[in-house]
Amino acid sequence: MAEFKIEEPKFNPQQLEEISQKVQEHIEKAIEVPQKREVLKEVLKEKIKTANPPAVVVQQQEETPVKFSQIRNLPEEQKVDALVKIAIQDSIADAVKIAQKLGPYYIDALHDTLVDEFLNILIQQKKI
């Protein structure tokens, strides 16, 4: 069985742009970073709630159970990091699907961590 390795995330540019646009719709230029974080938190919360994976290629459908079994076998402190990596690189929907199988704690932890991660990414890329 291949081991799931956590490395520097590569961004899913389409997903990042979609989140950036939704956040921009809610943010005025005068808003400070803590307020931007709250707006981003709401945008990601809605995205997680509506995480219905679109019709995907068969290969991606087969990868999700493999990723789930790999993540399930990781030490507890690495599971959320692995979910975040999937959310950033592939899609939030894939990460939510796996988190749901792991339990409610992982959905909450994924949401909280994604807020900070996407906030940092969007600020670094000067999208907010």
User: Mean of residue pLDDT?
Assistant: 80
Query: What helical percentage do the residues reach?
Result: over 70%
Low-confidence stretches: 53-61
Supply Rg: 15 Å
Order of helices and strands: HHHHHH
- What's the tally of helices? 6
SSE class: mainly alpha
Largest sheet, strands/sense/barrel: none
Number of domains: 1
Beta content: under 5%
Count of beta strands: 0
Oligomer: single chain
Give the N-to-C terminal Cα separation.
41 Å
How would you describe the shape?
elongated
Key terms:
128 residues; mainly alpha
How would you explain this protein's 3D organization?
This protein has 128 residues and is mostly helical. Helices cover 72% and strands 0% of the residues. Helix 1 (13-26) crosses helix 2, helix 2 (33-49) packs across helix 6 (104-124) and helix 3 crosses helix 5 (92-102). It is elongated. 23% of the residues are buried.
Task: Record the SSE blueprint.
Layout: H1 13-26, H2 33-49, H3 58-72, H4 76-89, H5 92-102, H6 104-124
Helix pairs in contact: 1-2, 2-6, 3-5, 4-5, 4-6, 5-6
Q: Short summary of the structure?
A:
This protein has helices spanning 13-26, 33-49, 58-72, 76-89, 92-102, 104-124. It is mainly alpha-helical and 128 residues long.
